[in-house]
Design brief:
Blueprint: H1 3-16, H2 21-27, H3 31-34, E1 36-39, E2 42-45, H4 53-65, H5 68-76, E3 103-104, E4 107-108, H6 110-129, E5 142-146, H7 153-161, E6 170-174, H8 179-186, E7 194-199, H9 206-223, H10 228-231, E8 232-235, H11 239-245, E9 252-253, H12 271-277, H13 279-298, H14 305-319, E10 324-330, H15 337-349, E11 369-371, H16 383-388, E12 395-400, H17 409-428, H18 432-441, H19 446-452, E13 464-469, H20 474-495, H21 503-520, H22 529-540
């Protein structure tokens, strides 16, 4: 569907891919007003792209032709849009309003969602107040979340982002099965004051359970077997396995198969966040996501931030041929946002099969490479490639109007200046003539000017999007995460893929499980000769 619109956009892409952004800006003095959108105090500025009125019209038409509104409504209604696993996709239900009724297979799931949230709040506030105490009756000062993937990246990112709101126990996270990760965390902690949260839906995730068993042994060595029940909680639905580990049912919190791991920070997986910032702040976080859900469902497509954000991504990936995008938060507390969005985006849209299981067109590009670091650090690392490299990599800047440290206002002013300067420099570049004039003004001799000018010129025409917000608080963070979630959904809907499975992750798990006995014992048992050779070499090092 929409093949004619796709072809028209391909023609526009061929024409505009190398268009001068300087000229586009000069031709439209009102460009910022016409190519930015907002909801309340959240702004999406896409004026520094090659999207023009005809391109935008074509993209909006493509969204209609590919059925984005209908697919969106089906998701919110609880339809089984995850077709490969025959599951609904309802992470949005976890932040729905108090009066919401959302059904899956004819059953309203909201009473169970609310009951689980109430249990989580009771537990979190009990840990914070000390009424839920350690084995010796003392207050917990530290919590350690043991998980991986969606059971780690979301809580890690959100906990760091909301550091100014922490007034509970210190939060630590262990994900990597590399023993160094667990060791480096545990050596800073007092067993008597530490609570562990083991997050694994099945309680079989090998990395998580390996770390959990090692943490259990560490605790038992210090406090004895009887202390396990007081010092562990679980996020899991495998009650029998949790009980066998020594964790009581009242300390176990589940979530549902219609919540994917990378969309699970709103669920019981967010328990460490709730303990760190409190139930009230966590509700503000959910409310921010709910506000973005409402905007996504109700705003016209031409003013709909997730739709516009997704369409710009499709424009850059499919019609301009850009293979990657750089996520550049000018907010140090969003340092883990690039990694979080990397999983959200690449695990969702790194697909080569259509949603119905059929083949995608051979020339259809799907999810791009997503990477990034916070500014201004990245400016002193990889921005050189963004400015003068041979590949064009669209950038996504995030910036707050206001920081959390009023006594360091000069710092924030410098941060904002750098963010805005980078977006302008990427777009406009610097011509050889401009570089020549600058060098001449500096008083360099003519031969030196001629030698240096090519080095100091920049091609420009590097598109970027800027997301601006007043202040990074729980509500705003909820909106930002939901914006990225729905952007991924829009892109997947246009590409015709399922954004909610992850069979590539499962393949790696299968192979690692099969290899483990050979790694522990004899490499000759490995069937693949290349893997057998590498394993044998490792054993000899």
């Amino acid at each position: 569907m929409g093949e004619g619109r796709w072809s028209a956009l391909e023609a526009l892409g061929a024409e505009r891919k190398n268009a001068s952004l300087r000229q586009i800006f000069a031709d439209d003095p009102q460009r910022f007003e016409r190519f930015s959108a907002r909801t309340d105090d959240l702004l999406l500025d896409y004026s520094k792209t090659a999207v023009t009125a005809d391109v935008l019209a074509g993209l909006l038409g493509l969204a209609e032709a590919r059925g984005v509104p209908g697919q969106r409504d089906a998701m919110f209604a609880g339809a089984a849009i995850n077709r490969s696993e025959n599951r609904a996709v309802l992470h949005t239900a976890l932040r729905a309003g108090p009066e919401a009724v959302i059904t899956v297979k004819g059953i309203d799931v909201m009473p169970l969602v609310r009951a689980t949230q109430a249990r989580l709040e009771t537990f979190a506030e009990g840990v914070r107040s000390g009424s839920i105490a350690a084995a010796d009756g003392g207050r917990f000062t530290d919590i350690v979340n043991i998980g991986i993937g969606g059971s780690d990246l979301g809580p890690v990112m959100v906990t760091l982002a909301l550091a100014p709101y922490h007034d509970g126990p210190r939060a630590h996270f262990v994900s990597n099965v590399d023993g160094a990760h667990l060791t480096d965390v545990l050596k800073t902690l007092d067993p008597k004051r530490t609570l562990f949260i083991v997050a694994s839906k099945t309680f079989t995730t090998i990395e998580t359970m390996t770390n959990a068993q090692s943490a259990r042994r560490w605790l038992v060595a210090a406090l004895g077997e009887a202390a396990v029940g007081a010092h562990f909680a679980a996020v899991s639905t495998a009650l029998d396995k949790v009980a066998a580990f020594g964790i009581a049912a009242e300390r176990t919190f589940g979530f549902w198969d219609w919540v994917g791991g990378r969309y699970s920070v709103w669920s019981a997986v967010g328990l460490p966040v709730m303990i760190a910032i409190g139930a009230k702040r966590f509700q503000e976080f959910l409310a921010g996501a709910r506000a973005m859900d409402t905007h996504f469902r109700t705003a016209p497509l031409e003013k709909n931030l997730p739709v516009l954000f997704g369409l710009i991504g499709v424009w850059h990936r499919n019609f301009c041929g850009f293979p990657a995008r750089a996520l550049l938060p000018y907010d140090q507390r969003l340092a883990r946002l690039p990694a979080y969005v990397q999983q959200l985006d690449m695990e969702s849209n790194g697909k080569h099969v259509a949603a119905d299981g059929g083949p995608l067109p051979a020339d259809l590009k799907t999810g791009p490479l997503v990477w990034g670091e916070p500014g201004t650090n990245g400016q002193h690392a990889f921005y050189q490639l963004l400015h003068q490299g041979r590949d064009v990599i669209p950038a996504e800047f995030l910036i707050a109007a206001e920081g959390h440290e009023p006594e360091l206002a000069e710092h924030h002013a410098l941060l904002v200046a750098n963010c805005l300067a980078q977006s302008e420099a990427l777009a406009k570049g610097r011509t050889v003539a401009e570089a020549t004039a600058q060098l001449q003004k500096a008083g360099l001799p003519p031969e030196e000017v001629a030698r240096l000018a090519p080095y100091k010129s920049f091609p420009g025409n590097r598109p970027s999007v800027t997301i601006a917000y007043r202040k990074l608080d729980p509500f705003t963070l909820g909106r930002l995460i939901a914006l990225y979630e729905h952007r991924v959904f829009v892109e997947a809907a246009i590409w015709g893929i399922n954004a909610f499975d992850q069979w590539g992750v499962e393949l790696g798990k299968e192979l690692a499980t099969a290899l483990l006995p050979a790694v522990k014992a004899e490499p000759d048992a490995v069937a693949d000769p290349l893997t057998r050779g590498l394993l044998g070499a490792l054993r000899k090092l």
